[in-house]
Design brief:
The structure is a homodimer.
Chain A: E1 5-11, H1 25-42, H2 47-52, E2 55-66, E3 75-85, E4 90-97, E5 103-115, E6 120-122, H3 126-129, E7 155-160, H4 174-182, H5 187-192, E8 193-202, E9 211-220, E10 226-234, E11 237-248
Antiparallel strand pairs in A: 1-3, 2-5, 2-8, 3-4, 4-5, 5-6, 7-9, 8-11, 9-10, 10-11
Chain lengths: 255, 255
Amino acid sequence: MKNQIFEREHQINYYECDANKQLTISMLVNVMMQVSGEQSHELGVGDEELAKKGLAWIVLQYAVDIKHIPTAHQKIKITTQALSYNKLFCYREFHVYDETGTLCVTAKSTFALLNFEKRKMVRIQEETVAPFQAPFSKKLVRTPKPEKVVEEQFTENEYRVRYLDIDTNLHVNNSKYLDWAIDTLDYDFLTTHKLTHLNIKFEKEVYYGNQINSQMSLFENEEGEIISAHRIMTGDVVNSEASMTWKKNGEESNR
Amino acid sequence: MKNQIFEREHQINYYECDANKQLTISMLVNVMMQVSGEQSHELGVGDEELAKKGLAWIVLQYAVDIKHIPTAHQKIKITTQALSYNKLFCYREFHVYDETGTLCVTAKSTFALLNFEKRKMVRIQEETVAPFQAPFSKKLVRTPKPEKVVEEQFTENEYRVRYLDIDTNLHVNNSKYLDWAIDTLDYDFLTTHKLTHLNIKFEKEVYYGNQINSQMSLFENEEGEIISAHRIMTGDVVNSEASMTWKKNGEESNR
């Protein structure tokens, strides 16, 4: 038995890019999620099939390492495979290759099954994950936590959730949290730095009409890396924590 | 000499859809613009070539008729062709066909050439439009104007332009105006109505950091159609006017 590897090509459209013609982090994540959704669909355990059982896949965390980010009009290749699962979590990996076939992005992610009505995680069902041919393993995979916002030393922006932020799971799509996080960084910073690492953890769903407080601290960590630490709040509730590692343009990524 | 017709297929990804799995109007427009950009590129007058001359294509207006909107995972076909041009404007048409080959969307649009540094429209150059093989015609094509917001009878929302709203023309991408417009309509309205017609006119560019006031009046016109009229303002400046025609779900589109 061998974990099924699934592969898709994707041409990067201009509307998936920023002012510098680089694929945005939100769209990179969208494309990866699209590909894992297609694998599930092809294996007969896609959104439509799960919906019949009142279930939906949700993503709980992902950690993304970016060597270089592909640009508009390039044709990239995305591969993904389920790594293992346990009682509550499924672990999945992604690789993105640029047009020359060079590995440019690696991502690890944690998924779970949501009871759609009750909005609660349910136990992973053997028949739902069997087609991916990934092993059951009791062992919890410990993904490092995002670095923390520095209390009383953060900037913040307010947002109101828009209709178009909501996805078919009837909550805010995971990529929109990234838009709120990125938007706390200013234009000069974003045009002179590149993202080399993202780690985001989703704690609580956000719904239509919610008022969002997106908080951010920018600092150097002990290794001298530039870090932005992010927290997405609704009132006193922490909905998501994330951290991003940045390099000045022109500097090499070690990832 | 025959106007060049250009054709592309596009698979609709889930992240281009709303909570109902329907392609959003912003993404529909993005896809059409992508295809016209690809035609220009293939004919040797794409963004990169124009940029060398300090020029960029900008869209001034489009009117879109929607018979039905395609949904997630469908493979659609988009055709486009330049219709004619005059001293300042280029006219272009789009057709979108759903997976069964049925025409579902028709759009007419007006483009112009922007001097990138001066941010001013320039005269259309013969060599830039010759490859499209569309005729020169002195005649201005009169596209109907969007219906007007009703003064003192509109609702409004405020937005701050985000970094990711900016495109490679270094102004807010045309599709983002649609996001601001749509967001003034409430969840119940958007989930019980479908868009059958959009007419949007872009008057003045919007830049990073601008404060946006998105105004909207909802009314029935003399033909008994449900209309939302929109105005995008920065301070006292009108940046864009738009109107949308809506049908209750279940009613046929006449478009």
